[in-house]
User: Fold these one by one.
Assistant:
Number 1:
Amino acid sequence: MGQIKLNQVTKSFGEVQVIPPLDLTIEDGEFTVFVGPSGCGKSTLLRLIAGLEDITSGHIDIDGMDATNVPPAKRGLAMVFQSYALYPHMSVRKNIAFPMKMAGIDEAEQKRRIEAAAKALNLTDYLDRRPGQLSGGQRQRVAIGRAIVREPSAFLFDEPLSNLDAALRVGMRLEISELHKRLATTMIYVTHDQVEAMTMADKIVVLRAGFIEQVGSPLDLYHNPRNESVAGFIGSPKMNLIKGAEAQKHGVATIGIRPEHTDVSMSEGLWKGTVGVAEHLGSDTFIHVHNTGLDTGPGDMVTVRITGDIQAKHGDEIYLTPQLDKLHKFDAQGLRVD
Amino acid sequence: MARAVTNNRKIINTAAAWAVGLLIFFPILWTILTSFKTEATAIADPPVFLAFDWTLENYTAVMERSNYAKFLWNSIIIAGGSTILGIIIAVPAAWSMAFVPSKRTKDILLWMLSTKMLPAVGVLYPIYLICIQLGILDSRVALVIILMLMNLPIIVWMLYTYFKEIPGEILEAARMDGASLKEEILYVLTPMAIPGIASTLLLNFILAWNEAFWTLNLTAANAAPLTAFIASYSSPEGLFFAKLSAASTMAIAPILILGWFSQKQLVSGLTFGAVK
């Protein structure tokens, strides 16, 4: 069991309210990702759930029980920190055993769980080392191992991959996803990386300035962003947001078109521009197009994505045609118009 | 050329360091030398540095006249007891100031330090009276408590500085792992702060060992530590200069040896956090 329910939860630091009244339900077994730009309150929200910060008003229910005033140690949640937060003076084995020692689990059972966790996380050969002797990825595995063995009702991850290099990050992302499939335990995962959010989540909670902007499945957010900021945040490269005359043609304040929903031609199309930078990834090419005469904000740039490779050099003329059925429309307040 | 300058500098610096070191150490050296002289040589004018007849007669006399073991034992109890008691009180205090600071934490730290600015003699009278009232004058208990209180600000300050270096996330991890406050301090914070705690222990042991004001004023026979042992050989006319030196040498020897063996720990502890 691991349903977590936030009812009218607020958090203030002194005079500053960082979380305005907020309601959210995380279902048992769900992989929920809190995503948003830095300073949006996502880590604070996670710490409120963990009990590491006291909430200012409202209440938190875990498995139907009011946990608002329950200390973190008694909430039955496990947390993986960005800095790993391993105990530097203990061996890997003792690090993993620590929560079980605190829970008073008998030695034989401790041993069994440590070995199972070590096997699952490829740590068997490192059990007698100290955290200082491990690489970043191994340390993060130890932190996950320490979280698994207590068999918590939910796992909380606070940007666990942001200290790892890109290659390792992709690997660990998969490992955590697989872990979730295997354990089917509630997981709450905080990240500022929308790729992690899209690839791992059952449910994404997009936050900005403490407010929940939208809650939904990754594809729901991708296809039906509720407002401009979600539209701009979800998807990589970012959606192009165009204002001015071009938007007025569609009767709205802003139109949005994703880079992958724009057809590209070197000879004809709706919008004409010049190639700025072309990023060739092999499988895809991202072209940043300037001088389109469209009101795209300060950068004057429309980004398009083409599957495969295309010969386009800096300064070449290029023509873009948005796929009209994939167009997103927003009103003057930035809210979606259907 | 540049190299030669650097070398010259090095020589000058080294020589200067030795000069300062010897200057500081000279009184101790002179005391040790004097303790091996006869009373007559000890007050000879001009003073004799090394060319004298070395003798152990002062040590024999001191051992015969006073019960060195008893003074030593009192010193160990008083210095050790006040240090350990101080650490037990200071660890939770420093924990709360380092990890759950309030708006006034900085003020409290300064206030604690300000108590060290008051001359001890200013509170001698009330403390003396309190000790009489409680019937603990000339007892080790009184000295353990008083020296602990005297050194507590320093202990808390030092531990606070070390604790500040420990990342708060590790303690939060312990809390998430189900550790109670006591377990968090016992199993996570304290072991991580061992180098800092050890140097705090050492420094305070040394401070308490050498403390003379309270130990001399509040003791007579029962609880007198080595400071009183030295004092008992001082006479206004300076007649027993060699015996006084022998007593001093015997009093400082244990702490000198302790300091010598733990100097690495002491230096690394005292400069902890100074270099990132």
Number 2:
Amino acid sequence: MTLLQRSSRRYLTQHPWLMGLSVLGVAIGVAVVVSIDLANTSASRAFELSAETVTGAATHQVVGTGETLDDNVYRRLREAGVRPSAPIVEGYATLQRGDRTFQVIGIDPLADAAFRPYLGTGTSGDLDLGAFMTQDVALMSAPTARELSLSSGDTLQVDVEGSTYSVSLLGLIEPRNERTRRSVANLLVVDVSMAQRLFDQSGRLSRIDLLAPSDEGTQTAYLDRVRQALPEGVQLRRSDTRTETVAQMTKAFDLNLTALSLLALIVGAFLIYNTMTFSIVQRRGLLGRLRALGVTRAQVFRLVLGEAAVLGVVGSGLGLLLGIVLASGLVQLLAQTINDLYFVVEVSELSISTWTLAKGGLLGLGTTLLAALPPAREATNAPVSTVLRRSTQETTLQRRAPWWAGLGLLVAGAGILLLLVTQQSIWAGYGALFCLLVGAALVTPLAVMVLANGVWPLLGRLTGVIGRMAARGIVANLSRTGVAIAALTVAIAATVGVGIMIDSFRGTVSDWLRQSLQADVYVQPPSLVFRRSTATLDSTVAARLRGVEGIAASYSVRRVTVQADVGRTELVAVEPGTNTEEIYQFKSGNPETAWDAVRSSPSVLVSEPYSYRYDVGVGDTLRLQTDRGQRPFAVKGVYFDYGSDLGVVLMSRSTYEQYYDDQGVSGLAFTADDTTSVDALIADMRASVAGLQDVLIRSNKALRETSMQVFDRTFTITTVLRLLAIAVAFIGVLTALMALALERRREMGVLRASGMTPPQVGGYLTLQSSLMGAIAGLLSLPLGYVLAYVLVFVINKRSFGWTLQLTVPTGVLLQALVLAVVAALLAGLYPTWRMARSSPAVALQDG
Amino acid sequence: MPASSPLVELNALTKTYREGDQDRTVLRDVSLHLDRGAFSVLMGRSGAGKSTLLNLISGIDLPTSGRIRIGGTDLTEKSETERTKFRRTNIGFVFQSFNLISTLTVAENVRLPLELAGNTPRADHDRAQAMLDRVGLADRADAFPDRLSGGEQQRVAVARALTHDPLLVLADEPTGNLDYETGQAVLTLLGDLVRDTDTTLLVATHDPEVLPRADRVLHLHGGTLHEEVPEYVGASR
């Protein structure tokens, strides 16, 4: 180790608190990024594994227009000599024991072995094929059975869309390797006919798996033969299309989580910048002496970057460990959110990928080094001669503050330009956000000067000389206070921005629910995906409910997934009633003529996110795959809808039935007549369907509350991320102010020597810290608002296509101010405590 | 460089600083030759430009016009990095406020110029130890500077300034922070060491007690340099 490195090491170890807190800041930043990445990866991996499990070796799949296709298609394919081919019925079920969701796959054991050999089916296995094909039995992974204390012969209670079935465990699948173990962990294998009963899909299949020859020429001929054998409306697709579609569904969601996780790291970067700048400012003299002795600028630069690298490596290492711990908690939250919003996924374990860890480590180290670059450059400019006093530097900085502010405005302007020149890029949106944060940080020193100079006469009147000193001290030490306040402002503004965004979102959704839920009672089968309930209400249940006395009107909703020319599309068929026009608020199109068209012709409405996602608007034609083949539908209006970020297409029930052979109902809404109370109606309805399908019968209010609960649940991760960013911000201000106060020991010594009592010195320090906190808090409010504006009107719009109403909750603003001042107050406590116990003589000597 | 050439050659140096809208000339057309082994004193009031001149001679700063040659090397033609490297090998510094590196021990402070010059660690160690012996602080080698008295710190600074056998030692008010007796002791030590090693020494000071030890006395006044030949030159050497 060279003497320069030794000098560095001693400096770092002489400031354990400062360095420790900086390391913690980087660690939390890295931990958040890594944990979100791990949670995202684990959820995608779980989905991929489950998709791979059910896809098996299949290269192509035959699918219907909607979720299912007629099982006669399978027969036609077999007759046409398309082999190997295997029919599949799949869905999700909840096992009552362990309340665990399983993917259920219904197979034909005689045709399936070529596709999924690891399931142990086929004639050569030891599976009792007769029992499997004729009885209510299932196969399950052996490790999962052990986990749930189940063994062959046990009876399982399985819930599917509100109905309960008893299934015996016929055998256990022994996975041959780790990959298979994970793939089959949440799988229940049943016979195809059993699956048809479970999912009420008599005579229907989810898809047919095919194994095309690998040779290109033969494959083309084979696929042509398959296509010729298919009836109209049935499609042939590559088997990996499904995983791609699902990945597309959550792309924006994943991206936003990643970007928000980076927020904590950015705040952490400010912390590192702050610490390194402080360490440089504090060592200007020492660096000047080294330069006088012949240490080159490059050596000084490397020295500072080396110190940052040490902090970065230690912080990132710690962050990786913390990240894994945090991820194990976040992954379940994330899985819950994905289940609420997109599709069913059961994540039973964390996939720790080396790539994620390497990325997190590199990101932590890279961010630290990047944050240390400006201070390192600053260090190379340390005046070589020791005659230059610090007051000269402070004066220079004060003189330069307007220039910095000008540069800040330029950077912020570049951010705004980035927003204007890009239309859809989410990353450009976050890039602009970053520019605004950096721009604001550059404007901060000037704002601090203006505010502190403005407040000192008032403070002077209130608290005398101590108040005046506290305010003037902030301007006099601008090289230190400016950075600390900028870091705190950015950190708090980021949390304010996210806070306002969540609140605005919540307010908009709440208003929308109030507007769109106008019936008194809502009925739907329980669904594993809250926002995309495609489960079917039992026809007997629907008929009985409609027959209950006291109903003034009833409306049905059918929700299915179909293929459109633009992609997989969620289709909603409704029965337009008298107040339908009030329920659906139009963004574009004329509601009156649009509804007339929807009622009487092949016309549809599309939701705002659908319109944005697929660039479809009024006047366009959407081609939907129907049971009559692909048909054109005129788009007559775009309406506001916050139910699904994937978007929906809405048509009237009569049009739906004209094009789809489906009498099913996904949900029913009822209004009570004038003489019946809603509670009584609900009680009667529950009584009328007792013993049948277990359906959710909820009042308007209950459904609204449940929806808001789900909304809050889906924002839990965002809230957790925001809290973690606040934690890093808190550490940031603590570090900055503590360092500042400790560094001024000599000044405090002078004050003590001049006759100030320890409580007076403490009061002075605390007042100054609080004032800095308050300035940061105040500055963070407008910046937070601007960030919220970008998050709501740019990021959210580009990610999901929603129009949200920006509301500014006073709670979030107050929280910001309190956070800033409390952090500042706490930061003042330790130096005050130390000051009270130290002799002024020592302080003077040390300086 | 011929043996008879002066070690330090300053030709028509001018240094002007920009202060707000105005220029302030600190040094005006300063020329000076210092021979190898000479002990020179630079006198002048505070703000006369003594430190500026030392900064120029050491290559820390560049003149607005004029030439600086040290040991035949023209510093005004060198880049910042080249000047820094020249300084680390050829110049030693003693400051008023000692300016030891607080994060290095006494021995490490003395070894620092050697290490920067690229010497081997073993040779560094022996040389530093020998220098500390010369200044009487061998027993404090492992102490940190803040444990030493002012006089001791300045003795370490003297050892550090000479440890790498520089051509020239520049001392800026070396006794300014010391009491009379300690200051005299440090001056004696410095004088002895430069004489023994035939090193050129330029001391900027306004302490008249230094004058009897000097070969040459230079005065900076109003930005120009004047030399006086004192009657006691050489009397105490």
